Amino acid sequence: MKLTTRILDLRAARGGFRIAREHHTTFRHLVVEIEHDGAVGRGEAAPSAFFDNETLDDVLQSVETARGLLGDDPFRIEDITARLCRALPKAHAAICAIDVALHDLAAQLMGVPLWRWFGLDPAAAPATSYTISLDEPEAMARHAAEVAGRFRVLKIKVGTDQDDARLQAIRRVTDLPLRLDANTGWTAEQAVETINRIAGLGIEFVEQPIPVARPDELRWIRQRVDVPIIVDEDAVRAADLPALVGCVDGINIKLTKCGGLREAVRMIHFAQACGMRVMLGCMLETSLGITAAAHLSPMVDWADLDGHLLIEDDPYRGTTIQDGRLVLPDGPGLGVIERQA
Ligand code: MG
Q1: Could you tell me the CA-to-CA distances from 285 to 72, 211, 260, 262, 304 in Å, in that order?
Q2: Is 0.85 topped by the overall pTM?
Q3: How remote is the CA of residue 111 from the centroid of ligand 1, in Å?
Q4: Is 2 labeled as catalytic in the residue annotation?
Q5: How far is the CA of 59 from the centre of ligand 1 (A)?
Q6: Annotated catalytic residue, options 181, 285, 304, 306
Q7: Are 9 and 26 in contact (CB under 8 A)?
Q8: Shortest CA distance to 329 belongs to which of 340, 313, 316, 341?
Q9: Is 313 annotated in the active site?
């Protein structure tokens, strides 16, 4: 197998993307391409300072180490990813890119779309939410009004001490259900007070209300509110999930934080076996990363796969959105193609 890499310089749409603890305008991702028997599989690494503290340089270095560990059979993905996780325990964005590229490659060599290989019905793909980045209340309401006609649900970034005004402003312009993501921004007391105050505004669930590694506080919140509580920053990999059972209603899985499709499937199965609901989410990513996650979306309850809509000049085309729902490509592998410049 021949592995090559390509750096993508990306820019957030609308001048930037803000959550409770960070603001992004430009960022760099790495695309891994693995060639074998005339086919090329691709995967995207979206490194995050929050998860594993990975930088683009770390990803480049990890991919160089991984190059020597691939072997020559793209179908041996379980063995390959296990080797990579042992050699590179803190390199989940890099491992994700390789895992996705191998799945793309193997499915292309079999001539089937990835969803078909996983045994899934593309018609069962859920609607995706569209994310409104943190801003002044009126700016968030204008953004919501602009996109509301194209989506069935909106995800609203919150996690400050002035979230009521934001939600009320958005509620004045749309009746769509709202998912809230506090990105660790509240205390437990603040979470209970805020959620109970705004519960009547049509809130589908609240994501990561408080900082990570406080499962007892999550349980305490969950006992005091009627809105489902799910976690994202707390649910990085399958090994994180046992501590969350009984403390939350669901989890948000992202390929780039867990290390790719194989770990994501492991997390989905574990969570569902324990009665937790599952969302597939994303970072700001191109259609390459988003489409990989979309192929698993028929397995889950909720999708938040809008990262490609939140960047300028997406270099790829893959999953599309029709009437708010994800439409999975029919082509072999990921079915992702490069956009013509
Ligand atoms: Mg989140």
Answers
A1: 29, 24, 14, 19, 12
A2: yes
A3: 34
A4: no
A5: 22
A6: 181
A7: yes
A8: 316
A9: no
> Given 54, 99, 104, 157, which residue is catalytic?
157
CA of 206 to the centre of ligand 1 (A): 10
Which has the closest alpha carbon to 63: 3, 2, 1? 3
Nearest to 56 by CA among 66, 44, 68: 44
- How confident is the model over 58-67, as a mean pLDDT? 97
Q: Which pLDDT value is given to residue 233?
A: 96
Active site residue 257: no
- Separation of CA 231 and ligand 1 centre (Å): 7
Mean pLDDT of the residues in the chain: 96
CA of 157 relative to ligand 1 center, distance in Å: 8
106 CB contacts (<8 Å, ≥6 apart)? 41, 74, 75, 77, 117, 333
Q: Are 33 and 4 in contact (CB under 8 A)?
A: yes
**pLDDT, mean of residues 13-31:** 90
Position 161 scores a pLDDT of 87
Kindly name the residue from 232, 263, 285, 304 that is annotated as catalytic. 232
Provide φ and ψ at 156, rounded to 5°.
-110, 125
Residues 6 or more apart whose Cβ sits within 8 Å of residue 219: 246, 247
d(CA 214, CA 336): 39
- Where are any strands of DSSP class E within the chain? 2-11, 17-18, 23-24, 26-36, 39-45, 130-132, 154-157, 178-181, 203-207, 229-231, 250-253, 277-280, 302-303, 316-317, 320-322, 325-327, 337-338
Work out whether the CA dihedral 129, 130, 133, 137 comes out positive or negative: negative
**239 CA distance to ligand 1 middle (Å):** 19
pLDDT single digits (tens) 37-46:
999 999 999 9
**d(CA 315, ligand 1 centre) in Å:** 24
State the catalytic residue, choosing from 254, 257, 263, 306: 254
Phi/psi region, residue 328 (left: phi>0; alpha: psi -120 to 50; beta: rest), is beta
